[in-house]
Write the structure tokens for this entry.
Amino acid sequence: MPKPVRMLIWLAVAVLGALAVATIALHRGEQINAMWLVVAAVCSYALGYRFYSKFVAARVLALDAQRATPAERLDNGRDFVPTNKWVVFGHHFAAIAGPGPLVGPVLAAQFGYLPGTLWILAGAVFGGCVQDFVILLFSVRRDGKSLTEMAREEIGRVGGFVAYVAVISIIVILLGVAALIVVNALKSSPWGAFTIAMTIPIALLMGVYLRRLRPGKVLETSVLGFILVMLAIWGGQWASQTPSVAQVFTLTAPTLAILIIIYGFAASALPVWLLLAPRDYLSTFVKLGTIALLAVGIIVLRPTLHMPPLTRFIDGTGPVFAGKIFPFAFITIACGAISGFHALISSGTTPKLIRRETESRMVGYGAMMAESMVAIMATIAACVLQPGTYFAINSPAGVVGQSPETAAATISSWGFSITAAEMHSLAQAVGEQTLYNRTGGAPAFAVGMAHIFSSSLGGQAVMAIWYHFAIMFEALFILTILDAGTRVGRFMVQDALGHIWRPLGRTSWYPSILTTSALIVGAWGYFLWQGVKDPLGGINSLWPLFGISNQLLATVALCVATTIIIKMGKARYAAVTLVPLAWLVSVTFTASWHKMFDPNPRIGFLAHAQQLATAGPPGHELSRLIFNDRLDASVTGVLIAMVAAILLESTLEWARVLSGRKQASVKEAPFVATRFAAEEQA
Amino acid sequence: MNPRGEHVEAAAKRQWKPGVLARQAREAAVVFLSTLREIFDESAYARFLARNQVVSSRAAYGEFLRENAAAKAKRLKCC
């Protein structure tokens, strides 16, 4: 294609993108179509990929098409396998896509659709995609080393230690808050609880089928598992309408929390093939299918957004979570824009599959763009709801009141009209007793998704099926994360304890398995229990904590990336990681400060503890709530101290290299020419 | 498709001609299926069978699961 034509096409993409962004940013007082968000996103990603990622690839990283990757040099057919770039892209995307980009944007929609959308686009193009791409490439050049190993080698021992603690922290907090989302989605919901309970025997059955009847036929088994899960959703309707069965599956939040803690402990101790692997396959199958379905649904049905671009809650008084738009919108959205967790995947399995160094751009930068698109779809799902409905679902009883009438009146007084009768009717339409006080984002996302699909596919008659399909989809992969995360945490603790007493490091020694599983499950279980008992719904405290720990890990990743770029002699380009790093530092420090010391009890942990202490006579329940607040403040303090430590060590390393006091040298694997280049030429 | 997927690159190099659309759609489907097979570990099992020169059986799959259990259990699922 001639160059002028190409230039004209890209100019058209830029103009269309600018028009879409202007439309979503400047429209006031009238509803807009969700397609404007999709167009703005697609154009932003296209421009970011074509121009910015190409600049990073060529000027900053100098991708070398002649250099052999570890997948080629160390090819063992097992961990290291040179793989087609599209296959690696799909594999990487399946690994990074989780509940975060669905839940975070739904919660952040309390500010309106505009702040979340802009941050998801800008954060991904200039931050998240760059982080994933750069860390992937640096891991490829180091034989697939992990983020922790790179931090230790390139920054220093403090960097390595901080990365290790950050990983453990994020795992524990993530698992606690993820479990809380499931609890809030399934409490008093016999339909949902029945469906999710059925996924456990279905996964076990899949494990046995795969092992005994059809060895290795995973796709076939996953399809069968999916059919069984669909039957379980259908059966859930029967369960909810049969009083004797419904009674068994109508569970309170504390009961569900205990069951999930027991499940987490048992699942992490069972053989991988029996529960973890089949559940993982099933959840991946459902996840990829549902994301594709949602994308098609939004494009075909083109729903209208009912949420305004900005709400009054940008002032920090939001009911879903307290805090002003800066920094809390950025902490809340997390994974859809930039996620430290992705750095673990980018320095885990993926670098061992990259066939050509040049393909790391498409895999690292491109897969994060797809993840960011999922976040945009979640924003749309939340914002197609009437704002009154959105706030009724997501607001804790401690903020809007216990009774439906009180809650509806409180929400209507904010200017978002809703009545108790409308909420009752909606709950009946989705097969629930109530939709009030379902904090956590998952039920709002499910109602939004059901709303989008029921407008065309099956109408109102199948809205309950769509709702419970979405709840099942979210709960299924959250429970998979609980299982997988507990195991990973257990291995990390075993690895550390093995340095103290060698038998504890043996991953097959049952006393060690049980002790370390109990430690990890106990840690996230405590956060879950704290959330369940929190009168403000738990999400208000725990999601920001998760956001802070996630952004802390991204800070570690960007410190590693900046250090390596400077050591490569590319300090003039260090801004590509330094600017997102500076932004994240300002966000995490400000958010942490507010969460610890803000005088507003709905924001500051210590102010809330003080309020409780002066509220009434001391009792066991009150003492526990006060302890929890102080614990959350301490955890936040430790996290932020670690950010400061790794920043300090990184800055000192940069100063040493830039001043010439230390010779700049990176610890890359030696150059070996790839044979793929010659094969392609032939 | 072979494990390295060379034919995908070869296909990309071919000139665009009328009637090629069906073939390219078929090749896209092959890549899609290969991606699913990689995500769902079917390709890893195929490589295991090829590496050990054995045919698929309960015993072979059991051995494959044992070999991969630790790696699978240590694989993070993202948030």
